[in-house]
């Protein structure tokens, strides 16, 4: 039984890693209608997939009784804890691989990935802070339509948002002059949504993981898709607050080419631009398009999550009870 579970996890994980991007593309018409749920499903799905891959080792530890590489009391404790966590005591088979490796390797991989991701996120935070200071240099802090913003004296029409600790919303005087009252309100609501919905944290987390696992098609697809859904989620908030015409008008003006577009599109900031989003605002999808792939993704991830939890819980319970 443990070997069967391990094989199912391995095959299922490999299949989702390869075909998951295709499912995400097919589900896009449904996902764009529920962007905040889509963000949770996509990011959560990636984390569930990683957890399921790491769970293969603990299942294999239940399946085989390999050579003992520890000695004395350490070996006794390890064997007792494994026995306390194993619901398949009668299903063990002989193995040439030491059982302890099935536990140590996933733990080391998880710890290494966690440390590497955290280091990447901290590095991104430092870069974001430096970029924010450079962009906001000489800006004037003021309040527009109920939002605290930094206004830069520039004819370029742009708006962008740094994390709140780095200054939040930044607007150019060119944007303030070019946008009418409703369009400016739409831009401010869009940028505020990035802050309120913690989009910078989500973006940093995905980037931190993808920096080390981008060779996995699923992770690469998530890293590519998330920025689009973050913008759509912010658009959705602005549309509900101000209306579609004002938001579309603002996007059309913000999308005009700028000689210094690289500044406004710096990865440290989330920015309001992009005519590719206008079609979704003007002609949103209707009907059941994308619903079947979406349901398939949700059902698969739910099953994968349940199996992973069922594997990890016995180990956690054994550790809490002292392997008694």
Helix share, percent: 55-70%
The profile of the biggest β sheet is:
5 strands, mixed
Tell me how many strands there are: 7
Distance between the termini: 24 Å
Tell me the number of structural domains.
2
Low-confidence stretches: none
GO biological process, one term: proteolysis
Domain Peptidase M48: 133-214
Cofactor: Zn(2+)
Family: Belongs to the peptidase M48 family.
How would you explain this protein's 3D organization?
- By secondary structure, the chain is an alpha/beta fold.
- It folds into 2 domains: 1-97 and 290-324, no CATH class; 137-199 and 215-277, no CATH class.
- It is built from 13 helices and 7 strands.
- The chain has helices at 2-31, 35-54, 56-63, 72-85, 99-135, 173-178, 181-196, 199-213, 217-242, 244-254, 261-264, 278-282, 291-320; strands at residues 64-65, 93-94, 140-144, 147-152, 159-161, 169-172, 270-271.
- The strands form 2 sheets. Strands 3-4-6-5-7 form a 5-stranded mixed sheet. A two-stranded parallel sheet has the order 1-2.
- Helix 4 links the parallel strand 1 (64-65) and strand 2.
- The two termini are 24 Å apart.
- The relative contact order is 0.16.
């Amino acid at each position: 039984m443990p070997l069967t579970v391990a094989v199912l996890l391995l095959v299922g994980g490999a299949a989702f890693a390869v075909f998951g991007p295709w499912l995400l593309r097919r589900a896009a018409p449904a996902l764009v209608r529920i962007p905040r749920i889509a963000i949770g499903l996509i990011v959560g799905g990636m984390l569930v997939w990683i957890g399921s891959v790491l769970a293969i080792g603990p299942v294999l530890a239940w399946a085989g009784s390999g050579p003992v590489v520890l000695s004395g009391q350490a070996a006794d404790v390890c064997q007792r804890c494994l026995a306390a966590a194993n619901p398949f005591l009668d299903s063990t088979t002989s193995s040439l691989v030491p059982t302890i490796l099935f536990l140590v390797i996933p733990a080391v991989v998880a710890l290494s990935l966690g440390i590497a991701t955290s280091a990447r996120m901290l590095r991104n935070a430092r870069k974001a802070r430096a970029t924010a200071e450079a962009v906001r240099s000489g800006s004037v802090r003021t309040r527009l339509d109920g939002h605290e913003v930094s206004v830069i004296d520039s004819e370029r029409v742009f708006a962008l948002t740094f994390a709140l600790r780095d200054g939040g919303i930044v607007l150019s005087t060119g944007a303030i002059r070019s946008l009418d009252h409703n369009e400016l309100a739409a831009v401010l609501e869009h940028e505020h949504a990035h802050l309120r919905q913690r989009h910078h944290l989500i973006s940093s987390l995905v980037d931190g993981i993808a920096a080390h696992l981008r060779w996995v098609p699923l992770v690469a697809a998530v890293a590519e898709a998330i920025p689009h859904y973050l913008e759509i989620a912010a658009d959705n908030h602005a549309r509900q607050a101000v209306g579609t015409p004002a938001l579309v008008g603002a996007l059309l003006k913000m999308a005009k080419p700028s000689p210094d577009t690289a500044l406004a599109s710096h990865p440290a900031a989330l920015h309001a631009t992009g005519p590719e989003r206008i079609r979704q605002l003007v002609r949103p999808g209707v009907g059941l398009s994308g619903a079947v792939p979406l349901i398939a993704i949700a059902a698969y991830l739910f099953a994968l999550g349940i199996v992973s939890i069922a594997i990890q819980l016995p180990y956690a319970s054994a550790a809490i009870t002292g392997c008694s």
